Amino acid sequence: MSKKILQLGKLFxxxxxxxxxxxxxxxxxxxxxxxxxDVLCVNEVGKKDSFDxxxxxxxxxxxxxxxxxxxxxxxxxxxxxxxxxxxxxxxxVHCPNPLANIALLFFPTRAHVVVHWHSDIVKQKKLKVLYQxxxxxxxxxxxxxxxxxxxxxxxxxxxxxxxxKISIIPIGIDPDKLETTSDGVEAIRSRYQNKKIVFSLxxxxxxxxxxxxxxxxxxxxEDYIILLGGTGNLSSELYQQxxxxxxxxxxxxxxxxxxxxxxxxxxxxxxxxxPSIERSEAFGVVQLEAMSLGKPVVSTSIPGxxxxxxxxxxxxxxxxxxxxxxxxxxxxxxxxxxxxxxKTIQQHFTNNFSSxxxxxxxxxxxxxxL
Length: 370
What we know:
The chain is an alpha/beta fold and about 375 residues long. It has 14 helices and 16 strands.
């Protein structure tokens, strides 16, 4: 029987963040399974309302007039919610999402509500005190709560009184998401003189732990090079660290990498490294991207985070303690000297983290509600 599903998110591709990638894969998978699959989200500040058809998924992008503390403010979002809230069987809310929370509180729906808990609010601790009652109301209202890993759910103080509602559905990505070309991969390897390439990628923010990877570069052999993609508010500090350590030939900044080039960088590397240090890194989707192409991952055992659970130590890579420069170096060298078979890594990905697994488990959850 066909179901009508509306996802409430922040943004939606072509803006690709972690939450947006999940929303995108679910939207397409729900549609492919024969259900109505719509999305209500905001547009970036300064852009007008727009209505798009993305491979059969109807996406309503609402104009936002400003953004504060990662929250978009949009009157159009509320108005579009009021018009559409009675049309669906399931409302799937990606959180944290205060705007959607407010919409549901003041303009209720009779539909089943599924909250997709991507992470706790960690950084804005003072603002969270004000938001906590709204958040608790939404969690009480939810018929089910999706957590991306058991370890994260059990360590979240926000979720403790709602553990009976939780279903564990790991994030999944399309195994064909990243395109690669033999010419592109060869060009990258030639550019860096066939050195052992350690690739890392993400926003340059505090919890990503890139400064520890740069420190590890000092201890790596001379035939290694670290390629660091992404930008952020700590970029200038990372540049200064590299210059201070005299590592300009050993650590290269790539800036924002285009979608067309990303697969080539993963394929060209010998090891992918995610050196995150705080549970703001709840899952680490970039690990899945690396695994989908058979690349071993070095990541960290952040207490209360799913990062070290996603990367299975000895199967898809190595998991080391956070902020441990020597452990990062040793794990990188070990995986380069004794590589894990590509098929082993890809099998771990396919069995646990492909988009089809995520979509099928989510559809099963919907069926249980309806």
